[in-house]
Specification:
The complex is a heteropentamer of chains A (278), B (326), C (346), D (324) and E (551). By secondary structure, chain A is an all-alpha fold. Chain A is built from twelve helices and no strands. Chain C is of the alpha/beta class and 346 residues long. Chain C starts with 6 loop residues before the first strand and ends in a 15-residue tail after the last strand. With 324 residues, chain D is mainly alpha-helical. In chain D, strands 1-2 form a two-stranded antiparallel sheet. In chain D, 53% of the residues are buried. Classes of the chains: A mainly alpha (278), B alpha/beta (326), C alpha/beta (346), D mainly alpha (324), E alpha+beta (551). The interface between D and E is large, with 65 and 74 residues.
Chain lengths: 278, 326, 346, 324, 551
């Protein structure tokens, strides 16, 4: 693993991605310290509506005269947590199902994978939309669960493929030959060898999840206000794109840069794990 | 008479950290109708040598500018891409190690044979097809006409290699480079392919550069043998001389290490240590860490390929034969 | 040595299914078909065959790394194929395997030290404090520098990796080791080292080997008896010197004749003499997968390639069974000559 | 091949059935029903609603409703649209061609642009051009699709006024135009949504194609082709591209769900009268049968897309054809 | 390749030329209005049509017996304008007789008769049709056909708004086309997507999800409409996209302009903002009197009248309205909209006095004893949630502003934005603390009885507010026979309601539509965008190409 990390670090683009990811994570973690204002405070409803970017408000203010920089910073916290947590849910589920299908094989495999095919035949946004739009007031935890529960299908497929490929390698046969049990084989031999692709999927998945959450917010069914998520700030700014473009611009840029950072990092990890794809 | 093909001071390096000198100053000649075998273990540079002749080295590899591959009085390495392409496949053809991967999986046998013909000859589609059939028959593929429509995966390994040979022979090249042509095949098939190569070479009068790790494979085919080690030729002589009186300790040890049916079962004499890595050739003689005869001079100073009566050898023992340990 | 063989294999068969899903049609491939043989204690049996002959599958079946379709395997009197988990675990202490692909048979994410240590931990063969010493001892025994314990497989050469594989197999102190093409991926100079090592170990530890290889010349150095496999079946078994001196099955003959000799004079001589180098006009050996329907099920599998002068209609209609034609010699050919003289090796 | 297609079709039917059931159940389990509020105001008295609920059988147990729905579906009856007061199939039928048109155009952009860029990059891997294109495609890939749509809309629709930004046709003039002019009007309306929707896919495809190209270019048979003395063009087009397209065909199958998900957002941004927007509206309006119908159709499209990809793969890759 | 390019360019030029070839409009009768709407009409069958968009279309395709005047007065008979009925007389206190205009024709050429009116009444009152207007239509005892052009409406009791109820709720339907259709199938009959009416505009086509097109009926029996064509164009729910289209000139009318866009019209040469006059809407924060967890028990907070009043006076509604609705914003002062004829009467109102609210809260025992910024009493925090429909940008904005205002008071109001259906369902089942409602469309004060009385529980009285005095006042107001008595009773009722503070009334700001400046004679009536649209016209000099298209 340390070799992989070193290779990731040697990759210029991955390094940029990693640096940005760390930066955003830090900003999110210390949002309340970095941000000059309470993200929900309406500073002056009459006098400070839609202030363009200035020294006092580098990202400007919104309809409610709230400081957008503070909102974007706190939004990072919400958006990143939702993305990271829901990806965690989906990775755990996808890995579990993929392992089960790949290891069990036969009927179990067939049934699980046809089920996954079915779920994949449904556009993910559509699936999430049905659930999120219809259930009232699901809250952030609910959103995380729903996003996670509807996005593990790809993961399970890839994990299954990886399991099948690793399973057929000789060191697994060697481990069986020395009398290692199933748990030992999975824990010591299988998982460490499929960890790479899973990490890549997780990294890239976080970016995609941020995009998905933004899309949901755009359709009006993501995180509910006044909690500031990036998608939700954009949806707010959507109304005034022409007159106050900065409201939607900065969270939009934040999304692009963050997702880009995760993609760069994910690609870097992928390259590090598979030197052929240089 | 000038040799048909002459390789002088060939050096091919691969960029990287650290950079590797896969081929490091190789010289040899190939005469009309002659078979020269290059023998060596993995990583000795024999395949890179073969590829360098036709400039088939991909990034990050690079053939050093002072290298010369002279064919028909022209240095191939300085030719323009278009001119070089006229040589490739037509004057000098190649057969590779893995027929399964060296044939394009999505094209039929016919396409893969005729495209070579059509690239070098002005020939109609039907004539090319007829010629392709002839070629398949030449390499002894049964029901040749029917096999034209087959895809590589529908053929066995031996058949695939025959198709490769047919492709290589399609323009009646003057030189055939066969890079480990039988390594991926079973022994019985290997025997057939070797016999086929020998027969075709005789019939078509072409020169052959045969590359192999297996001394047994080249024994029956080669007129001369060059043994490579560490990116260099360390011994070069007629086939008979190499097998009967190997001069270089490596050649000698290699011959002893091969299990043979024609000798009584004895303990094999192994060469200590392992094959060196192109990124870190040892100083001095590249064989010295594994050589039973090595002394100080071998560790510090690099021997040159020196002509002797029986052949060329790259070893300090030619200077100080008394150092040979008995 | 008591009279009972250490390993007895009886009518072992394995069929692979490929393709087909919930709705698709599966194809079956007979990899191993009714194979029977036995290995005595301390004996080394060579198993030779070309790619696709089923020799590797056979090795895995014996260790129950694959599940057999039918037949039995008895190891030291214990039925391997029906053993429960505990018994199987105990068996795996006594039967081990060394693989061909030394790179693939080592977990790339594990140091070679832990790879050798793992079997001992699994079988609780040593106390934690003793483990390191034992790993070092094993390293020494197989000729590895103990400095290498913390290296990863990709940092080693092929020969070193194969030594790790051997050390791992030996770590549980087995009686019987399946050597599945242990040297075919190695360079000639290194191949000799490993072959010598295997011979030394066999002597030192009184091991029993099943030595699987495609190269007859290599087998000759390590096997007391040789079994030849073709198309999932055994076609000939004979003591090593006799097999090489006087092969009886036409396939064995072909195989022997095809081995290149590193001697220019002899090589030329042989092909001039018109020995059966395999008819170059003849078809290649059958591909790894039998083509369904390409061959009648009741024919001799070698029939299409057989150079035997006596081959006739019978070979096409009747599968020859393995029959004894001399002391310790069995052959599956209708026309093998039982009276062939047992010449001493040349 | 026939057997293969038949087996896959059977599988497809099972998948579609699964999707239909899942959607039906999700909708049934969600709070509210189509009649609890078919309006945007509070004008319908509850007694009236209760009566209609009975009339539509919405007061029956879920299982009964489900069985009835399946029965209807088997007869090609998609149920009733409570919002449009007509058969749900009619509501879908009116939008389906628009979505198919948009999806097809987006597919052209996705694969045309994506493959072109990917091949170009793959051949110049590591060059400056490759680096820049990689970064651009990665950035596009990281952009929310609706955001990209808005940016394009503001730029080409409002600032430059080159292209219309809403709808599939110009309702003012469309019916007065000649056939050719109608086609032109449609193309103009199609451009922005298709480019928006296709750009993301093109970015993904380019990345994939680049990797596939790099993979193929390293293969032994490319070296063989060069050793034969073939022109570089032949090597790239006949030998490299034909093989490098194979993995991308798999992407073709995977592109459908992504594309249909994207249509939901893109159709909203550009008011494209297609299934995506219909679905969003139907979800909000609890128009159950339209949602379920749309899900079933989406699934049909996805499985057909996959099937098409598989067949294409089999046609282009002789190795996957069944041994004769 | 170049050849293909050339062909392509030629094709493009050719088509461009075709696209610009415009047929002259006959009789110099020109004008096309393209109306941008966020959503689509549901169905164009008047008894079932519910959304504003559908209603704006059917109001042009169909027509009523008579219509309200521009002030939307529902009680003054002189302010009503004739439509299908050319005149009407009050036979007695329970009967009104209408004479139909003999030249009125359906768009298929058939004459409009008294039979159609009677048929329409039967359809509207039929429970199988389930028209939202049914409760109002049930106020009518019966409709009698006197002769082909005379029809009499009978009422069970005498009251002021008989004429209003007789004409306003029903658009007359063609019996000769629909008479044979079973009632239960009327709603889903294809007529609903291909309507034939007797209004000023004929239905041309409906492109699903995209547009609805109407063309002026040149044979319309009243004054010829000013515009040749009206097209509704669905722009999707994305307001900024719609605004973009309005200002870029691809549409002429946008049904609602947010204040930011209103501001922009001031500098625009092409677009102006036109107000819906008078406004028929008001919005309010409704308190639940029942515990959402157990509806048999009173609400732990809002059952307390003093607390409700304290909260009501503490909200700076003026500031909120200014922020959300702009400088033209109007603060609602009770359960009345400006369109109601009782609006602005002398009813009591609660003033804004944050200090007083704060003081009263303290007097009630609410203090921040744990220092968390939220007041508490007996261990219960003054904290509650409000449900808001996510579809309403305006209500979402108000909610967030009021949330901040409450916060500074030590009151925690959590906002729960809900999908509209869920929102409504929560309201109907009483599962909320505070409900952000909006009421409107009906210009009659009779609507008060539908929300604020005991009888309205189970209807729109979601908060279960009951005051017998209010019920009594409303009843007497509905039964009043003269305007002054009615005004007095309604004023009493509103004062009582305001005093109880069952809700905090927020805004009844006049909404504005964006309209292209080339249209003349433009006005928009508060209850319907298109009520006055037949009067709009485009002066010759300002015609755009699209105005000249013939149909």
């Amino acid at each position: 693993m340390s070799r992989t990390l070193r290779l990731v670090w040697q990759d210029r683009r991955a390094r940029v991605g990693l640096a940005l990811v760390v930066l955003f994570a830090l900003l999110a973690a210390f949002a309340s310290v970095v941000a000059s204002h309470d993200p929900t405070a309406q500073l002056d409803l009459v006098g400070k509506q839609y202030q363009p970017p200035s020294l006092a408000h580098p990202f400007g203010t919104d309809f409610y005269s709230r400081d957008l920089l503070s909102r974007v910073l706190h939004g990072a916290r919400i958006s990143l947590s939702i993305a990271v947590l829901s990806v965690a849910v989906s990775i755990v589920l996808g890995t579990a199902v993929g392992l089960a299908a790949g290891l069990a094989g036969g009927l179990v495999d067939q049934v699980l994978m046809r089920g996954v095919d079915g779920a994949l035949a449904m556009p993910r946004l559509f699936l999430v939309l049905v659930v999120v739009a219809l259930w009232e007031d699901i809250g952030v935890v609910g959103l995380v669960l729903i996003l996670g529960l509807t996005s593990w299908f790809d993961t399970s497929r890839i994990v299954r493929a990886e399991v099948l490929s690793v399973k057929s390698r000789q060191f697994i046969a060697a481990a069986r030959a020395v009398g290692l049990g199933l748990r030992g084989i999975v824990g010591r031999h299988l998982l460490p060898n499929i960890a790479g692709p899973i990490i890549v999927m997780a990294t890239l998945g976080i970016g995609q999840m941020i995009l998905l959450e933004a899309g949901l917010s755009y359709l009006g069914v993501g995180v509910r206000p006044p909690t500031p998520s990036w998608g939700q700030i954009i949806a707010d700014g959507q109304q005034v794109l022409r007159t106050a473009p900065w409201v939607a611009l900065f969270p939009g840029l934040a999304i692009v840069v963050t997702v880009l950072a995760f993609s760069l990092l994910g690609d870097g990890v992928r390259r590090a794990l598979d030197p052929r794809s240089q | 008479m000038k040799p048909l093909l002459e390789v002088r001071d060939l050096r091919t390096t691969f960029a990287g950290n650290p950079a590797t000198r896969a081929v490091d100053g190789v010289n040899f000649t190939l005469d009309v109708g002659e078979t020269l075998a290059i023998v060596g273990e993995s990583g000795c540079g024999k395949t890179v040598t073969a590829l360098s002749i036709l400039g088939l080295i991909d990034e990050p590899g690079r053939i050093e500018p002072e290298s010369v591959v002279e064919f028909g009085g022209v240095n191939l390495l300085t030719l323009e891409a278009r001119e070089l392409r006229r040589i490739r496949g037509a004057e000098i053809a190649m057969v590779f190690q893995e027929p399964a991967t060296s044939l394009n999986p999505v094209l039929t046998v016919e396409t893969q044979i005729t495209e070579t013909l059509r690239a070098h000859r002005t020939i109609s589609r039907t004539a090319a097809r007829a010629r392709a059939t002839d070629l398949l028959e030449l390499v002894r593929i049964p029901q040749a006409a029917e096999r034209l429509g087959a895809y590589p995966h529908e053929l066995s390994g031996g058949m695939q290699q025959r198709v490769m040979i047919a492709i290589a022979l399609s323009c009646e090249p003057k030189v055939l480079i066969a890079d480990e042509p039988t390594t991926a095949l079973d022994v019985t098939v290997q025997a057939q392919i070797l016999e086929l190569l020998a027969e075709l070479q005789g019939r078509l009068g072409m020169a052959m550069l045969l590359i192999s790790h297996d001394l047994g494979v080249v024994a029956g085919l080669a007129d001369r043998i060059a043994v490579m080690y560490g990116g260099q030729i360390i011994e070069q002589a007629s086939a008979a001389a190499i097998f009967e009186r190997p001069m270089h300790p490596y050649t000698e040890a290699l011959l002893k290490a091969v299990p043979r049916l024609d000798r009584p079962v004895t303990r094999l004499s192994a060469i200590a240590g392992s094959v060196p890595n192109a990124a870190t050739w040892p100083d001095g003689c590249r064989f010295h860490p594994r050589c039973p005869h090595a002394w100080d001079r071998c560790r510090t100073s690099h021997p040159e390929l020196t002509p002797t009566a029986a052949g060329d050898v790259r070893c300090w023992l030619t200077d100080e034969p008394h150092r040979r340990v008995r | 040595m008591n009279g009972q063989p250490l390993l007895a294999v009886d009518r072992l068969s394995k069929t692979f299914r490929s393709g087909g899903g919930l709705f698709g049609r599966a194809r079956t491939i007979r990899a191993v078909h009714e194979v029977s043989f036995a290995i005595a204690r301390g004996e080394s049996l060579g198993l030779v065959g070309e790619s696709g002959s089923g020799k590797t599958t056979l090795g895995r079946l014996i260790l129950r790394l694959l599940t057999a379709n039918s037949g039995t395997v008895h190891f030291d009197g214990t039925d391997v194929l029906t053993a429960d988990r505990r018994t199987l675990r105990a068996l795996r202490r006594r039967m081990q395997i060394v693989f061909q692909d030394s790179a693939g048979s080592l977990n790339p994410r594990m140091t070679i030290g832990s790879a050798v240590r793992e079997p001992m931990t699994v079988h609780r063969l040593a106390r934690r404090s003793e483990l390191d010493t034992r790993v070092r001892t094993l390293f020494g025994e197989v000729g590895l520098d103990p400095i290498l314990v913390d290296r990863y497989p990709h940092e080693l050469s092929g020969g070193q990796r194969q030594r790790v594989g051997i050390a791992r197999a030996l770590s549980v102190e087995p009686k019987f080791v399946v050597l599945d093409e242990p040297v075919s991926a190695l360079d000639v100079s290194v191949q000799a080292q490993v072959l010598n090592l295997l011979a030394d170990l066999r002597e030192r530890r009184s091991l029993t080997y099943l030595f699987i290889a495609h190269d007859l010349a290599v087998v000759r150095h390590l096997a007391d008896r040789v079994a030849v496999m073709y198309f999932g079946k055994l076609v000939e078994i004979a003591p090593t010197p006799r097999l090489f001196a006087a092969p009886t099955h036409p396939y064995t003959t072909t195989l022997l004749a095809a081995i290149p000799v590193p001697d220019p004079r002899r090589a030329r001589q042989r092909s001039m003499a018109g020995e059966p180098v395999g008819r170059s006009a003849g078809p290649d050996p059958a591909p790894a997968e039998p083509q369904p329907g390409s061959q009648p099920a009741d024919a001799c599998p070698f029939y299409p390639r057989c150079p035997h002068p006596a081959k006739d209609e019978r070979c096409r209609r009747e599968v020859p069974l393995l029959r004894e034609i001399g002391v310790g010699r069995l052959v599956a050919c209708h026309y093998a000559d039982p009276s062939a003289p047992d010449r001493p090796p040349a | 091949m026939h057997r293969f297609v038949a087996a896959r079709l059977l599988q497809a039917v099972a998948i579609v059935f699964l999707v239909g059931t899942l959607t039906f159940l999700l909708l049934q389990l969600a709070p509210g029903d189509p009649l609890s509020s078919t309006s945007s105001s509070l004008l319908v008295p509850r007694t009236v609603v209760e009566q209609q609920r009975r009339a539509f059988g919405l007061d029956r147990p879920i299982l009964e409703q489900y069985v009835r729905y399946l029965g209807n579906l088997a007869r090609g009856d998609f149920g009733y649209s409570y919002r449009e007061h007509r058969p749900a199939w009619h509501a879908i039928r009116d939008r389906l061609p628009n979505t198919l048109l948009l999806a097809a155009a987006a597919l052209v952009v996705t694969f045309g642009l994506g493959i072109g860029l990917g091949v170009a990059q793959g051949l110049r891997a590591g060059s400056r051009v490759d680096d820049v294109l990689s970064l651009v495609s990665l950035t596009v890939y990281s952009t929310p699709v609706f955001w990209l749509g808005i940016v394009l809309l503001l730029l080409f629709g409002e600032t430059l006024r080159w292209l219309p930004v809403s709808g599939a046709t110009d309702p003012v003039v469309y019916d007065q135009l000649s056939l050719l002019a109608q086609a032109w009007d449609r193309i103009r309306h199609l451009t922005l949504p298709a480019v928006t929707l296709g750009a993301i896919g093109a970015a993904a495809t380019a990345r994939f194609q680049r990797a596939a190209m790099l993979d193929v270019i390293r293969q032994d048979f490319i070296r063989t082709a060069r050793a034969k003395g073939l022109a570089e063009r032949t090597v790239v087009l006949r030998h490299a591209l034909r093989n490098a397209l194979l993995p991308v065909i798999t992407l073709f199958g995977l592109a459908f769900p992504l594309l249909l998900g994207g249509t939901v957002l893109v159709e909203t941004v550009f008011a494209w009268p297609g299934m995506g927007k219909l679905t969003v509206d139907a979800i909000h309006g609890r128009d159950y049968f339209v949602v379920t119908g749309a899900a079933v159709l989406a699934a049909v499209m996805v499985v057909l897309g996959n099937l098409l990809a598989d067949i294409l793969y089999r046609v282009l890759d002789p190795r996957t054809r069944e041994a004769a | 390749m170049p050849r293909i390019c050339a062909a392509l360019i030629a094709g493009v030029l050719a088509t461009a030329c075709v696209a610009e070839r415009i047929a002259p409009c006959p009789d110099d009768w020109c004008g096309t209005a393209v109306i941008a709407t966020p959503a689509e009409a549901d169905v164009l069958f008047p008894p079932s049509t519910q959304g504003d968009i559908g209603r704006s279309i059917i109001d042009l395709v169909f027509t009523r017996l008579a219509d309200l005047g521009p002030d939307l007065n529902t009680v003054d008979p002189t302010s009503f304008e004739p439509r299908l009925a050319s005149s009407w007389t009050r036979e007695d206190s329970l009967t009104i007789v209408f004479s139909l205009n003999p030249s009125a024709r359906w768009h298929d050429g058939a004459p409009v008769t008294a039979e159609d009116v009677a048929f329409t009444y039967e359809v509207y009152r039929d429970s199988l049709v389930g028209s939202p207007a049914r409760p109002r239509v049930l106020q009518i005892a019966g409709v009698d056909v006197r002769d082909p052009h005379t029809v009499a409406f009978r009422f069970p009791r005498a009251y002021l708004e008989q004429l209003f109820d007789a004409v306003y709720h029903m658009w007359i339907l063609p019996k000769h086309l629909l008479g044979a259709v079973p009632r239960g199938e009327l709603v889903s009959h294809p007529f609903g997507r291909n309507p034939i009416g007797a209004g000023p505009y004929r239905f041309v086509r409906w492109r699903a999800g995209e547009s609805v097109e109407l063309v002026a009926d040149s044979a319309y029996f009243l004054a010829r409409p000013g515009l040749r064509r009206v097209i509704w164009r669905s722009t999707g729910g994305d307001m900024s996209a719609a605004i973009t289209q309005l200002f870029s000139g691809s549409v002429d009318v946008l049904t609602y302009l947010p204040p930011e866009a209103v501001q922009r019209t001031e500098t625009s040469d092409e677009i102006r903002a036109i107000a819906y006059q008078p406004s028929t809407f008001y919005s309010y924060l409704l308190f639940n009197f029942r515990d959402p967890a157990d509806p048999t028990r009173p609400h732990p907070l809002f059952a307390d009248r003093a607390l409700r009043r304290a909260l009501a006076v503490a909200v700076d509604r003026a500031a909120a309205v200014r922020a959300v609705d702009g400088a033209d914003g109007i603060v609602a002062d009770g359960p009345v909209s400006p369109a109601m004829w009782i609006y602005g009467a002398e009813y009591e109102r609660l003033p804004y006095d944050a200090a007083r609210g704060r003081r009263e809260l303290t007097q009630l025992g609410w203090r921040d004893s744990d220092g968390d910024g939220v007041l508490d009493r007996y261990g219960r925090r003054l904290s509650f949630s409000i449900i808001v429909p996510e579809t309403s940008a305006q209500r979402r904005r108000f909610a967030q502003i009021i949330q901040e205002q409450f916060k500074s008071l030590g009151v925690e109001m959590r906002i729960t934005e809900l999908d509209f259906n869920t929102f409504l369902q929560r309201a109907e089942t009483g599962r909320f603390d505070v409900f952000y409602g909006s009421y409107g469309g009906d210009p009659s004060p009779a609507s008060i009885s539908e929300v604020w009385t005991r009888d309205a529980i189970g209807g729109f009285n979601f908060g279960s507010y009951v005051n017998p005095d209010v019920d009594h006042a409303v009843r007497t107001a509905l039964d009043a026979r003269d305007i002054e008595t009615a005004r007095g009773r309604w004023t009493d009722a509103v004062s009582l309601i305001n005093g109880d503070a069952p809700a905090i009334w927020i805004s009844c700001t006049v909404p504005k539509a964006g309209v292209h400046r080339r249209f003349e004679n433009v006005s928009i009536r508060g209850d319907n965008l298109t009520a006055t649209l037949p009067l709009w016209r485009v002066p010759t000099a300002r015609r755009l190409p699209r105005d000249r298209y013939d149909n």
